[in-house]
Amino acid sequence: MFIMKKILVILAVLFALGSFNQVAAQSKVTYYYYPAPNVYYNVSTGDYLYYNPANTGWVTVKTLPSGITITKTPRHIVYYNGNDVWKENGAHKTKYKIKKTTVTKSTAVKKSTPVKKGNKN
Question: What is the pTM of this model?
Answer without folding.
Answer: 0.61
